[in-house]
Automatic annotation (TrEMBL):
<feature type="domain" description="Solute-binding protein family 5">
    <location>
        <begin position="72"/>
        <end position="436"/>
    </location>
</feature>
<dbReference type="InterPro" id="IPR000914">
    <property type="entry name" value="SBP_5_dom"/>
</dbReference>
<dbReference type="InterPro" id="IPR039424">
    <property type="entry name" value="SBP_5"/>
</dbReference>
<comment type="similarity">
    <text>Belongs to the bacterial solute-binding protein 5 family.</text>
</comment>
<dbReference type="GO" id="GO:1904680">
    <property type="term" value="F:peptide transmembrane transporter activity"/>
</dbReference>
<dbReference type="GO" id="GO:0043190">
    <property type="term" value="C:ATP-binding cassette (ABC) transporter complex"/>
</dbReference>
<dbReference type="GO" id="GO:0030288">
    <property type="term" value="C:outer membrane-bounded periplasmic space"/>
</dbReference>
<keyword id="KW-0813">Transport</keyword>
<dbReference type="InterPro" id="IPR030678">
    <property type="entry name" value="Peptide/Ni-bd"/>
</dbReference>
<protein>
    <submittedName>
        <fullName>Putative ABC transporter substrate binding protein</fullName>
    </submittedName>
</protein>
<keyword id="KW-0732">Signal</keyword>
<dbReference type="Pfam" id="PF00496">
    <property type="entry name" value="SBP_bac_5"/>
</dbReference>
<dbReference type="GO" id="GO:0015833">
    <property type="term" value="P:peptide transport"/>
</dbReference>
């Protein structure tokens, strides 16, 4: 225990990791999390556009709503809300005794100020779209002087009017961009953030660590330990070595190390895993050449042995996909089966479509591991079905730009959910409104699919909404709007003294408020 304490002291530089209790035993009071590999871009919620930033914002700030580790939306600064019968008007009833880290009292005006700041063009916000459902929000973000559907009739009430019904709107308010800020937001707010969240920023040593102290006045109850240290460790082997030395408490397991952890008794005892809201798929540009024919797109799906791909590429960390809705979300259809791996069926479909000699296509991928390896494996599978692929590898940003511009035949990529709802897969990846830059790099367009998704977005009843999601997902799967490969499982190693940790299904779902540290 003394060696672990000493190591943590050396790492934190600012606070010991262990102390002596009254009975002489060692008590841990610092949790060290090594899940982030790079520095947050900003701690200003308006500019928090990456996962490390989003995690840190969740520690420091609250929104009107928040996500649990399991992905449920629950009240945060709003203790409750009501929705008008037409689905257009949300009335949020606020908690009346919440204070910011500087001691100032949270009031309804802070919601209005925070949302208006996010929308103002001069803020140069990185993520504005969570507020776009609000009436007038798009125009405001475009610099137009129009009324905004946002009212604060008193200090503890916020009324938001939407441009059109959107049943998932409370989930959008749990996004980092919708966090609530105090009255005074200076130019150095990213370095000196002030929120209402369960943690306060103590120190940010860029590209090294962020140190947070617990907010003892947090309205939801102060965290059970004193200090949260978010380490930035780019090299996975370094993080593994520190975990095994006891100086890191939470470790992300890279795909290539999965088997070595699962096959070692001592290591396996520390593993926890859960499905993530992440889809690996092939974007199929349905406007280009032979890919316009659904039979050709179905041939692609039949030519790929997805179970073997999952086992070999990701060490089985996930489930084979038969649609774009993950198994943990309402709208998933457990009865739907993936396309069978059948090279002869693929060749037959090509012949029926008028391509008895096969076709030639380009498959784009990122240059970052494991995408080149996946692309090469797909090239071999599809080649056996007489679908000849030329591989094109670019850096990730160039690959995304080409796909969004419609310049790719096929592109292999992944999609992380921004919020836990089937809509966040169906709408951005396949709806006509999002062709290209919106995320639909398959340029898939189907009027029936669009109608089903649009109805689901408006439907307040959860069961009916899930039925609409399943119908839309089934239609797009049969039409091969894209080729879904598999849904990913997150895997972490967790020290035995960490109690109550749940693997979050969404990046900002774990705020460490229900986690404790044992001896």
């Amino acid at each position: 225990m003394r060696s672990i304490c000493a190591a943590i002291i050396a790492i934190t530089l600012v606070a010991p990791g262990c102390r002596r209790a009254d009975d002489g035993s060692s008590v841990r009071h610092t949790l060290v999390d090594s899940r982030d590999w790079y520095d947050p871009r900003s701690l200003d919620p308006a500019k928090a556009t990456d996962v490390p930033s989003g995690r840190a914002v969740a520690y420091l700030f609250d929104g009107l709503t928040r996500f649990t580790p399991s992905g449920e939306v629950e009240p945060a600064l709003a203790r409750s809300w009501d929705v008008s019968p037409d689905g257009l008007r949300y009335t949020f009833h606020l908690r009346d005794s919440v204070t910011f880290h500087d001691g100032s009292l949270f009031r309804a005006r802070h919601v209005s100020q925070s949302f208006q700041r996010l929308l103002r063009p001069e803020t140069q916000s990185g993520t504005v779209w969570p507020l776009f459902p609000i009436a007038g929000a798009r125009a405001t973000a475009a610099g137009k002087d129009v009324p905004l559907g946002l009212e604060t009739p008193d200090d503890t009430t916020v009324v938001i009017t939407l441009a059109e019904p959107l049943a998932i709107f409370p989930k959008l308010l749990a996004m980092p961009a919708a966090a609530i800020l105090p009255d005074h937001v200076g130019v150095d707010f990213s370095e000196k953030p002030v929120g209402t969240g369960p943690w306060k920023l103590v120190q940010w040593k860029h590209d090294d660590f962020l140190k947070f102290a617990r907010n003892t006045n947090y309205y939801g109850g102060a965290p059970a330990f004193d200090t949260l240290l978010a380490r930035i460790i780019p090299e996975p082997s370094t993080a593994v070595a520190e975990f095994e030395a006891g100086t890191v408490d939470i470790l992300y397991i890279p795909e290539e190390q999965t088997r070595s952890w699962e096959n070692t008794d001592e290591r396996r005892a520390n593993l926890v895993s859960a499905p993530a809201l992440r889809l690996w798929y092939i974007g199929v540009n349905s406007t280009r050449g032979p890919l316009k024919d659904v039979r050709v797109r179905q041939a692609l799906a039949h030519a790929i042995d997805a179970p073997t791909l999952l086992a070999q590429l990701l060490a089985g960390r996930g489930t084979v996909a038969a649609g774009v809705v993950p198994p943990t979300l309402d709208g998933f259809d457990a009865a739907r089966k993936p396309f069978a791996y059948d090279t002869l069926a693929a060749r037959r479909l090509l012949t029926e479509a008028g391509y008895p000699n096969g076709i030639d296509l380009e498959l784009w991928s990122s240059q970052t591991s494991p995408w080149p390896r996946l692309a090469q494996t797909l090239q071999a599978y599809l080649g056996a079905a007489n679908i000849r692929l030329k591989l094109v590898q670019r850096d990730a940003s160039a690959m995304r730009a080409a796909a969004r511009a419609g310049q790719t035949d096929l592109v292999v990529k992944d999609w992380y959910a921004d919020y836990p709802d089937a809509e966040n897969f169906l709408y951005p990846l396949l709806h006509t409104a999002n062709k290209g830059a919106g995320g639909n790099v398959s340029f898939f367009s189907n009027a029936t699919f669009d109608r089903l998704v649009d109805e689901a977005r408006r439907e307040a009843d959860g069961q009916r909404r899930a039925t609409l999601y399943r119908s839309a997902d089934s239609l797009a799967y049969q039409q091969v709007g894209l080729v879904p490969l598999f849904f990913y499982n997150e895997m972490y190693a967790v020290q035995p003294w960490v109690k109550g940790f749940e693997v979050p299904v969404i990046f900002n779902g774990q705020r460490w408020t229900k986690v404790s540290l044992g001896q």
